[in-house]
Amino acid sequence: MRTCEASSIPKEEDCQGTVQPWNIMRILLAQITSVQIDKYPTNCYPLGLMSIAKFLSARMAGIEVKIIVGDIGCKDVESYKPDIIGMSLLTGFFTMGCAMASAIRQGYPDLPIVFGGHHITYLPNNLPGSVSVGVLGEGERTFLQLCTAFEKSGRFGADDLSKIAGIVYWHNGKLQLNPRGETFLKPEEIPIVDNYDVCSFKIKRRSTFHIIASRGCPHKCRFCSSSPFWGKVRLHSPQSVAGQIEYIQRRFDPEVIFVFDDLFIANRKHLSEIRDLMIAKKLHRRASFSCWVAANIFTQDVIDMLKEMNFFAVNIAVESAVPRVYEYLKGTWNTPADNKRAIELAHKNGLLVYSSAIVGAPGETEADIESTCDFLRSLPISGGTAGILKPLPGTALWEEAKQRHLVTDTPDDWATFDSENVLDPAVPIMSDCLDRATLKKHLDRITTLLITRERNQRWRTRLMRINTPGKAARFLHRKLRAAMQIKHS
């Protein structure tokens, strides 16, 4: 903390803090998650918050950032003594985050609390009274401005907040909303995320490592909120992508690194430059790689580049085999025929293929879902996931669901929006011609198909993950070391 010694300085009604002398400003960021609600965030490092931390530390002297993945409470505040708390919240965790903020506010009434993430971006009017500011959209530049404003006087004053684009905040008991403006980073400003040591996990983290090579998306899938959140499409520099891969390999020596965004192959020049850097740095020798790909641009020359970089698997989203259902979900930029061609081409070239399916679109019949199940069964896929179509804030689906009176902007509990219990009437679904029991039956069938494929190919998958002598030796060394630790514990 920027050494708070002047506790007698008077407080101001609109400032959520006190004027304090300091040497170090401490920022406590939290990726709010729970393994009971959503398993994905518990498996991965929070790259978004890590990017914010790296951006801050490069531009402000005397700043220290700690990131928690899990829950956060007064004990965390007491032990770290932050000057500002920031919470990143997806919709399914928003109710949980509000409760945590309220508990912290009761124990520390003058501590500024900032909400960020997808939910507050799309529903800024949801900012609770216990929270000082909500950051809308991409957070690096905006959070830096908040920290700079706080550094001047030890508080978030209304005059300073009124000049910061892309925030929502309380002033005199009313919400004030500042338009987002041009808060997006240029590609060269996006930091290399190599600050993994600032993170701590409150729940067991799996050995999953991923990177993101782009921001934004040109497609307008009905169920996805990525495009409005990130704004314009920006590809991370090839040097940044290679730099993060190099750091992860040096620091963690993982078997696999997953490129999580589906624009990795969108620009051939960008892809070839990454390929050249990876080969020059011999990064392809120390780990295997997997990525999402868009089927409509997945060609033989793309496959050749991926294999040069030691990609052993790709993810291609099937979603539906029925053209009209697929077009409803994702538009016309890609088709089920594109997906079939791409999956078969990947398999022909020795790549494992994982996929995803969505059931429960309006107008989708049992026969349509049967067609998707048969389609998946006919394809050489190695596993994947299936889910029910649910509306989330920030998507076209959300606006449609509001028009049908299926959702409101202020439900009792946002956790239901992340629940997988299709039979729960509180879980919003979009299907208008199939009941919940029927949807669950077909969803379970597709899920079982995908899980069975994955189980049947687990040894092939393992061998493809450790597909060089060096990686095989390191794999055996890790297993032996783990066995010895168990023996001596």
Instruction: Estimate the global geometry from the Cα principal axes.
Output: globular
Largest sheet: 8 strands, mixed
- Give the strand tally: 16
Helix fraction by DSSP (H/I, runs of at least 4):
25-40%
Q: What integer is the average pLDDT?
A: 89
Under CATH, the topology of the largest domain can be stated as TIM Barrel
CATH architecture of the largest domain: Alpha-Beta Barrel
Across the major sheet, the strand order is: 7-6-5-4-3-1-2-8
Number of domains: 2
Structural class: alpha/beta
What is the first-to-last residue Cα distance? Answer: 38 Å
The share of residues in extended strands comes to 15-25%
Total number of helices? 18
Structural Rg: 24 Å
Please, what is the CATH homologous superfamily of the largest domain? Aldolase class I
Quickly name the level 1 CATH class of the largest domain. Alpha Beta
How does this structure look, described?
It contains 18 helices and 16 strands. By secondary structure, it is an alpha/beta fold. It folds into 2 domains: 25-178, Response regulator (Rossmann fold); 207-470, TIM Barrel (Alpha-Beta Barrel), CATH 3.20.20. Helix 2 (47-59) packs across helix 6 (140-153), helix 10 packs parallel to helix 11 (300-308) and helix 14 (366-378) runs parallel beside helix 16 (436-456). The relative contact order is 0.09.
